[in-house]
Amino acid sequence: MTATIDLTSVEDPQDAVHAAVRTLCEGGVVAMPDECGLIICGLSSHSEAVRRLTELRPHWKTAIPAVSLPYTELIDDYIVESPPAQKLANRLLPGPVILQLQLSPEKLSSAWSADAARWFHADSEQGWNFAVPAEETQQSILRLLPAPLLTLTVPTHGVAPTSPVGGVDLTLLGGTPRYGECPTLIRVQGNEWDTLREGVLSDRMIQHQLCDVFLFVCTGNTCRSPMAEGLFRNRIAARMQCSEEELVERGIIVVSAGLAAYPGSPASREAVQLLKAENNIDLRDHASQPVTEELLFRSDLIITMTAAHREAIINTFPDLSSKTRLLSPDGNDVSDPMGAGMEEYQRCRDEIQDYVDQLIIELDANS
């Protein structure tokens, strides 16, 4: 008989989490809420759970199988290194995405039982599907388990299941799924990717996540970094022989932010006037934004105006040291022209423009 717990009415959700963990560790199979519907799962290290999932799988023809992990970085323990795989995993997970990635024979997949590995080879001899759920209950359960879960994600098209799922030992019932579509299944092979099953994310959204992101950082994000952003975007578009609006389609995103920025402030009047008159670059729509952890880790290259800006970032996030640099290749600071008049703005703009041109030459040489 299937036990059932309604998460929408239970007094303490942790009781449900511990009940699911106990069932899974005993080799049981559990159904629980997912952002796209529900998942049916068992512990990958338990042979009885793998056997039962294998028997259940043909009954759920729309389900997508996956290895479900609690943290995105754990995927690296299984796969062949690939820039697209790393970007998609870091930028789309946790979330309604399943990535089919190529396995490395020297990594953890080689330690799995033959039955667990065979469960995936029915879909692909080259790779496994990996998921990192954003749904809170799943996250809580995964973080308490001794091994990853084998999961079947069953889309319910926005309708919350209201009855126990047949063939499982425990069903956790939840509220309405966040998405009315299935998770997007993306295959990555080498440097190429394609969508195996359309879902929440469109191909355009996926391509956007694969763009190289250049982040320019100053203090208030109203003069130096907006000028650097505008000049870099202008120069890089000219180099690629496209309009600035087409840069995203060419795989380039250019943004700026400030370490002490107030959200939504316009670019300084002098910066707007100077770049429009002499560079035909329009900063009138600029709105300042603060530097955030998400923005920093989303960026491929972080370019600061001063050594102090760089130091502030890497002191907080040492892992970003290798991709955080000064705009000046010689280690010079770009001084703040705020309040110093148009002549100082012109000197600052000329300095930034020279450094931007050198940066583009450097990027060309390394590409």
CATH class of the largest domain: Alpha Beta
The number of distinct β-strands equals 14
Compute the gyration radius: what is it? 25 Å
CATH T-level fold name of the largest domain:
DHBP synthase
* CATH architectural label of the largest domain: Alpha-Beta Complex
Number of helices: 11
Average residue pLDDT? 92
The rounded distance between the terminal residues' Cα atoms is 61 Å
Strand % is 15-25%
CATH H-level superfamily title of the largest domain? DHBP synthase
Gross morphology: elongated
List the secondary-structure elements in sequence, H or E: EHEEHEHEHEHEEEEHEHEHHEHEH
Structural class computed from helices and strand pairing: alpha/beta
- The share of residues in helices is 25-40%
Biggest beta sheet attributes: 10 strands, mixed
Oligomeric nature of the chains: single chain
Poorly predicted residue ranges: none
Strand order of the largest sheet: 1-8-2-3-7-4-6-5-9-10
Q: How many structural domains are formed by the residues?
A: 2
What report would you give on this structure?
It is a single chain. The chain has two domains: 3-201, DHBP synthase (Alpha-Beta Complex); 212-366, Response regulator (Rossmann fold, 3-Layer(aba) Sandwich), CATH 3.40.50. The chain contains eleven helices and 14 strands. Helix 1 packs across helix 5. It is 34% helix and 21% strand. The model has no long low-confidence stretch (mean pLDDT 92). The N and C termini lie far apart (61 Å). It has a ten-stranded mixed sheet, sandwiched between helices. By secondary structure, the chain is an alpha/beta fold.
